[in-house]
Design brief:
This protein is about 80% helix and about 0% strand. It is globular and about 55 Å long. The two termini are about 20 Å apart. With about 200 residues, it is mainly α. The longest helix is centred in the N-terminal third of the chain and has 36 residues.
Length: about 200
Amino acid sequence: LGAVGSTTLLVSLFTGLLIGIGSGVNVVVARGLGLGSHEDVEKTIHTSLLICSGIGIVVCLVCLLLAKPMLLLLNTKEELLPGAVGYLRIYALGMPAMAVYNFGNGVLSAAGDTKRPLSIAGVVNVALNLFFVIQCHMAALGVAIASAIAQWLSALLIMRHLMSQKDACRVHLKKLCIDKAAAKRVLMIGIPSGLQNAIFAVAN
């Protein structure tokens, strides 16, 4: 508990950033759907998937490479440091999936589907937590592995749903490309929103 708790501020900072970028996707897609501009919606969705994936990978690399320096900066207790560093690094492996999930959640919410954010992944997370911690005696590392697996499951399920859509919100992997205008619209909303979320962790 001490090791996991030591990472709370860093996890909040980075997840807040990813959630904010997803909010940018939500606003821009909703605007396109409201205007009936299916071409803009399509460009926004495929551009946003690449942007969110890229930001998720960058966040993952930052946590993998700088986990120990960041935790030392937060004055993490020496006896908690190994567990906290291990937890943050493994948890970080799920960050790209979390970014994709927030992208998908933003798209579905814009289209009026607010029920889907996939509770099954939460159930799997709890079950794996119990398995890794109680059965495998993996402590903080087990909690991190369970979280990462649940995040990837969430991302896979939401992508599967988006790729099966029959409307403008459908994801076609062959159409993935960066549209500058769509990227600008998403980032102009997503970055301030992400920074606003992250600033609470920085203040703490």
